[in-house]
Amino acid sequence: MSKLKLNGVSKAYGATLALRRGDLEVMAGEVHVLMGSNGSGKSTLCKIIAGSVRPDDGRILIDDTPVTITGPRSARAQGIGIFYQELSLAAHRTVEENICLAALPAKARLFVDRTALKERAARYIALFDGVSGDGFSADALVGNLRPDQRQLVEIMKALASEAPLLIFDEPTSALDRAQVERFFEILRDLKRRGRGIIFISHRMDEIKAIGDRVTIIRDGETITTLNLGETDAGTVIRLMVGGAGDMPASQSSAPAVVDAKDGAALTVRNLSGAGFRNVSFEVARGEILGFGGLHGQGQSALLRAIFGAGSIATGEIRIGSDRFDAASPRDAIRRGCAYVSGDRGRDGVISGRPIIENVTPIHYLRDRLMIARPSKLSDRVAPALESMHTKFASLFHPINSLSGGNQQKVIIARWLIDRPDVLLLDDPTKGIDLSAKADLFALIRQLAAEGLGIILYSSEDAELLGNANRILVFNGGSVSRELTGPERTRYNLYQAAYEAA
Amino acid sequence: MSSVLSFLRQPIVVALVFIVLLLYLGELLSPGFASAAQILRLMIVASLLGIVAAGQNVVILGGREGIDLSVGGVVSLSAIIAGNVMQGADIGIVPAIAACLVAGAFFGLLNGLGVTLLRIPPLVMTLGMLGVLQGLLVVIRMGIPSGQAAPALSRFVTQPLFFGVPGIIWLWAVIGIVMALMLSRTVFGHRIYAIGSNEHAAYMAGVPVRLMRIALFMISGMFAAIAGLCLLGYSGSSFANVGEQYTLTSIIAVVFGGTSLAGGKGGYTGTMAGAFLLVILQGILTTVNIDESGRQMVFGATLLILMMFYGRGRAMRA
Asked: Rounded to two decimals, what is the model's pTM?
């Protein structure tokens, strides 16, 4: 029996088509896995089901009846429960209150019925007895719990909705093995009771362990639905990658071979910190080292930590042959390290200020300037912007008057006046147009040719394959695989990314 | 046409138009209100407010809900310190200036440390500091006669210095030029706007955000201290709550001048116009016999009305 059916659902944000044609059918009593790479439209599909995004087109059927989901409340009313990946808990409330938050039991429709609340929460807390860890109790404050325990509360909250259809978006990312085992037992029990479950995970072993069928989404389109029992990991990955996945990255587009005698620009030894552990690598002068893998596997955390904006627990960083432990970005910049974030709005753009003031901060710091004479600064700023083909009417217009791509060029230009030794690129092309991307990569290659050591983390595989000499694939905070030479293929990149951590 | 409109909607132009209108209104209510001598007198009062507002201005520009509510207390404290140090003698002026600046910088430093290291919101930190200062003033004044201004200081504030214009107005003009240059032509000024517009981006671009913020509160304290010293010269002797009104009026002057309370947007030229405007308003209210409490009500209402005009989209847009 079909629990949920989506037919040709689509969604566009402005000119970008997030979901072209989403089809999905979840049966009662199955765990249905949803797979797709970053930006494939998988999360848009989930948001449509959960009611937080309205589709432009297409049909949704619950129990074979066409429905319209107008918002999260309407989704809940129609029997859809969701586990949110970004934790949606109230930190200052207790575990039991959080579990029952969506539907607090009430006396006289006004006062919270404490006894009923305790009883109801206890049912779900008992499900994880023995694996929930120290300090986990019904009256513990959620804010005092460990990340894995908070994730358990989030799971309990989703279970407490008792919805016939449950969506779990990466529910296991913080859990340990025993917790995952227990969670899977619970899911199997729900299956027996005829619930439909949508399950999203990037761990192949988990998908094989719990999933019945898998639907693969690529480029905003549902590719196919397979029985997991009749397929293997290789086939699934190949379907996610699409046609040309086995072809090695074209050699013509790869940068010049690095001369080893140039020495290392940046050396990282056994570095651990918040979000990454035991990472070691070396970037030679003139090399572009790629960081690959799924989103949030420690790539950004590592780059920010090197730049002094994140915490490092143990390990060693060297720039050239000098010890480099930047206490702050200011310290890192002084010692020749540069960082470009993909999150321009948060990390880069000084909004409302003129373009020129968005380029000069690094120059002020490295040249220890006190006076900012516009005419003198213009002579330094204009060439930096022109080398990236930045389009602007005047240096004194506010940066907000530029397009996203041109804003990012301005942010990158600030590193070009006083050249750094090491350039850290943290998904630098997020949300910028194709021509700006082309300009950006032309510049990055030129900088590499001039002897900079460059690290490029990109969520777009084509950028990594086309520009990086080597690619380190991150999984769960550490490097799971290094791809060099002809190994640099889309297929290998995906396989390494989706391997069990 | 649209460029004419946008010119007319600039806060400083609005303020200047209001200045002319209010002067005209004052002249109607009380002939002689807009005479040259009277305007000079108003400008002396405006420069006291303008100097306090200079410090308020940089703190607000620095963003993160930056505001300095303790300026009124610092003005009072500085006036009392100055009066007691100089005791009516010209020889005491230099030590008095030094003592006032040190006191202003010290309380600014405390504000800055509280806001950066202890992460206390500026509104709470400086309000608390205002309370501390007010208490301190009561304690200091117990049994001690309030000091007296040195004759030279009084002359500087009230008597013509060059071209018939008193020294304090010249001082205000110099502060205006220095502030304008600092904000537009120095690295420090650019960094104030940077932390006010996007603190995190500024941090990632190597701006010493905490040091900057501490410096801004110290600057604010020192400007308030200078104003307190000049206020002593204006009134001759000091009393405990002499500077009280400057907390509210300095904020109104800054907002009137078009500086966004959200930070990162605005400048001092507008604030100067705003300060002058407020003083004219004060003069008119006095002319029509509205007492101090009535004036405070009008000022409070003015701030709220201003926020309604500028507030939508302008003041709070980050």
From this structure: 0.80
